[in-house]
Amino acid sequence: MTLNSLDDDLTKRLRAALPDDILRDVEPRYLSEPRDSWPGQAGLVALPRSVDEVAAVVRVAGELRIGIIPYGGGTGLVSGQVMPEGPLPLVLSLERMNKVRAVFPEENVLIAEAGVILADVQAAAEEAGRLFPLSLASEGSCRVGGVLGTNAGGVNVLRYGNARDLCLGLEAVLPDGTIWNGLTRLRKDNTGYDLRNLLVGAEGTLGVITAATLKLVPVPAETGTALLHVASPAAALSLLSLARDQLGEGVSAFELMHRTGFEFLSEALPDLRQPWAQAPEWSVLIDVGLARGLDPQAALAELFEAAAEHELADDGLIAQSRGQAVDFWNMREHIPEANRKIGSIVSNDIALPLGEVAEFIDRAPGALAALGDFRINCFGHLGDGNLHYNIFPQRGATRADYAGVASDVKRVVHDLVQEMGGSFSAEHGVGRAKVGDLERYGDPARLAAMRAIKAALDPLGIMNPGAVLA
Amino acid sequence: MTLNSLDDDLTKRLRAALPDDILRDVEPRYLSEPRDSWPGQAGLVALPRSVDEVAAVVRVAGELRIGIIPYGGGTGLVSGQVMPEGPLPLVLSLERMNKVRAVFPEENVLIAEAGVILADVQAAAEEAGRLFPLSLASEGSCRVGGVLGTNAGGVNVLRYGNARDLCLGLEAVLPDGTIWNGLTRLRKDNTGYDLRNLLVGAEGTLGVITAATLKLVPVPAETGTALLHVASPAAALSLLSLARDQLGEGVSAFELMHRTGFEFLSEALPDLRQPWAQAPEWSVLIDVGLARGLDPQAALAELFEAAAEHELADDGLIAQSRGQAVDFWNMREHIPEANRKIGSIVSNDIALPLGEVAEFIDRAPGALAALGDFRINCFGHLGDGNLHYNIFPQRGATRADYAGVASDVKRVVHDLVQEMGGSFSAEHGVGRAKVGDLERYGDPARLAAMRAIKAALDPLGIMNPGAVLA
């Protein structure tokens, strides 16, 4: 089914069919993604204020055969929110649906509209004496709808799960313009197909999420942070296992970092405080949040002693104050910024079975060596088997020097990931940037089922055309 | 699309198309469900030994337009596994696919075929020093495929989630006979639509699960059990909140029981040991599993003291031994058996928002009073807002005396549940018994989407015909 391009005539008809103050000329901020690699195109943005207005937009777009790009905070990294080519679409931004509709502290539940910024959800939870544990670099600007549409991850997935795991219910507009009122606060509800999880992670291709029931959790009584030097990625995984044996669910985050990341920080962000003269080759940043009666510093010290005894870790720092913990995390959280300043050839957001992570880190540089001389910044959410495995020019060279090999680099990494049972997209999604990867690496039976579902729910193909499935 | 009835001619053609030892004449055990309310019909059962054989059965059934009833342990309570009427179907039992294919203790992962009995998964996890936390009354006979197909719950959902939350990947045969190889061990994988969660809970209507990657968890270092007398359901909920504030994720189970349950135990199972002369009106059974360094008995004692201070609980027992804990749980787990012996008029498996549970328990007897004089046994997984709200004849009366009002009783309960934002099926599913409830109470937009998905993935309608959707 071919869509129409949003020309002057269709713009007039859209304006005639919808209330005046919903449509605006698009601003540049809607047309670029953070890495700027895929500039989008669009002439109009719709800014509805209610689910009924969203439904009206979707219905009219269907009648006029105009594509819709659902837009959250615009922080996605795979160009799910920008459309570089094809019939000119309508951007549909949820930013005016930005209310926390209700908080139920005794139920550990919060209901937020799709346009609420993630940090505002966290703040509303905190005000109610609860924690909304989803935490990621873009939390100050990403919005609930995008977080769920892309099934966002971040640093606390190990303990609390990803966006999917923190969602109890949805309100959404389906591609035919009908409204699904699914804002349940229920923990159990076995009454048919899991439409919630189908929309979560569908990146706006099966409908528009307009509000969500989110799970809150109790605030851990005591928290602690440690930065430990580990002998190797394999040692880091053994340390994770040890930590979970000792502390159970108390391990909230477990991040692996290679020395390259700290070298990039020194090079690109020299004012950022680093707690060492010489960074260790491999280190892990561990957050624990414990129940009453346990002392996190003592628990982390005990963990370090056991790790040292097993020759997993030989040095490290246990944060002695909240400020020191913030410093440790500042380093971790500024690595992506340093990466952007250095300029990667290829960024990979991959997942591996935990037991394969060390072998992957061991094998990948050899597989890449034939393609050139690179710097590799490998860091990520080790507890989830999720590595940001980013490839950079050697010192003195530039991205342009590697222009010809970027796609081969990506291919070599993804082929190895596939061979080892991994995923070419752990937490960033498919968007438009990885449509080819999904076709190449996806299971054929699953892909056929996905296409059948897309055709069944969105027969006109108006929802985020070209994203996820070509 | 009308299906064919499995007559002699089709039986011959099935036998010709499949290896000899896959098809057998059906035994009575495949044709009844535990409550015996819906006797099924079938002439043949297929017993494949591999995913390829399952695929062959599904393909041939599709060619011959014969309905397939996927069959696990046969323990479902809503007749998803028995078909009382319509064209004679083929039962497809996964019982010969009963291998634990692999265990990855360091990854907290286990891969099991659909025919593995739940207790055998638990045992394999234990052997690897891990816990598979899904636990329910039928764990000695239910099988992995059925557990996932129905998204089973049980007593540890509060802490560890239901079957859905404990599944990382699936191998399945889709309705067109293609095999989806999705046995990933990944914690994060954002590469398109969530087919896993669509099949989980679809009750065999969208495909046949043949194997699953399951999540294991660390074994809590120390466990404890308490049986506390609470002032009311509202007090029980405040106690739950207090427990989670004090112990975080350490609260593994939180079961509410009304005195009626203990009276039924005395009446129907007089030999079962009960730890009191006079049962309290309301009590809760709490399991905790704590990290190293915490003493569960001390933690439970501290919890009780705080509860007493807030007038939430006035008496109780903290198990002093594993044997005593088993005794407490024995009572809870024998309530369903006592119910069966007493003979319910109607059994309801309902969920409510946590904040509405107490009001529901308060209002429901009044709503039912107009229909007759009942005994109500209300018990269940309070931490999940999941009540088994079962209605019995008064002492001296029998089920037959209430034959005329059973459907009205169910309607009154479900109407009130719906009004309060609840679910008519918390953990048992829809099967065939609750198809009418789903039509009555389901969101219309969601139902339309479900029908579109069913038609797209199973256009011939061969997969568990008549279950979930009429």
TrEMBL record, chains A, B:
<dbReference type="InterPro" id="IPR016166">
    <property type="entry name" value="FAD-bd_PCMH"/>
</dbReference>
<dbReference type="InterPro" id="IPR006094">
    <property type="entry name" value="Oxid_FAD_bind_N"/>
</dbReference>
<dbReference type="InterPro" id="IPR051264">
    <property type="entry name" value="FAD-oxidored/transferase_4"/>
</dbReference>
<dbReference type="InterPro" id="IPR036318">
    <property type="entry name" value="FAD-bd_PCMH-like_sf"/>
</dbReference>
<dbReference type="InterPro" id="IPR016167">
    <property type="entry name" value="FAD-bd_PCMH_sub1"/>
</dbReference>
<feature type="domain" description="FAD-binding PCMH-type">
    <location>
        <begin position="37"/>
        <end position="219"/>
    </location>
</feature>
<dbReference type="InterPro" id="IPR016164">
    <property type="entry name" value="FAD-linked_Oxase-like_C"/>
</dbReference>
<dbReference type="Pfam" id="PF02913">
    <property type="entry name" value="FAD-oxidase_C"/>
</dbReference>
<comment type="similarity">
    <text>Belongs to the FAD-binding oxidoreductase/transferase type 4 family.</text>
</comment>
<keyword id="KW-0285">Flavoprotein</keyword>
<dbReference type="InterPro" id="IPR004113">
    <property type="entry name" value="FAD-bd_oxidored_4_C"/>
</dbReference>
<dbReference type="InterPro" id="IPR016171">
    <property type="entry name" value="Vanillyl_alc_oxidase_C-sub2"/>
</dbReference>
<keyword id="KW-0274">FAD</keyword>
<dbReference type="InterPro" id="IPR016169">
    <property type="entry name" value="FAD-bd_PCMH_sub2"/>
</dbReference>
<dbReference type="Pfam" id="PF01565">
    <property type="entry name" value="FAD_binding_4"/>
</dbReference>
<protein>
    <submittedName>
        <fullName>FAD-binding oxidoreductase</fullName>
    </submittedName>
</protein>
